[in-house]
Amino acid sequence: MHCPFCRHPDSRVIDSRTSDDGLSIRRRRQCPECGGRFTTTETASLAVIKRSGVVEPFSRDKVISGVRKACQGRPVTEADLAVLAQRVEEAVRQTGVSQLDTNEIGLAILGPLRELDEVAFLRFASVYQAFDSLEDFETAIGELRADRAKAGAADR
Asked: Whole-prediction pTM value?
């Protein structure tokens, strides 16, 4: 890390702290040459490989806009979508992989979306799981009903 004051190519880390969201590290540094102190923030980059082969940075906003279409007309708030996008990003980062296909991100959305709204889940799943027929919808609905019945039995 170059010193911003004298451009010396090295610095010493005095203190390191994880940010509140856990996604970045704040480091307090000191230059051995001029003695100047400065702060750096380090984040792990997460890249998305699109179907066209183009690589771009992960964006929560794109997750939200994709899910918003599935939630159209449903009782889902912007705050719900923001929480969902955060959960998806955290899950994707926990894989430890720095580059993911768009399809993998779409699949990572399914779990949190299922908890948020079942109809939106079915709409989104029909695209990302490539539903080809009514039987695919029936199977997905049957799984939702079975899970709901299990949850109801566990609550008793």
From this structure: 0.69
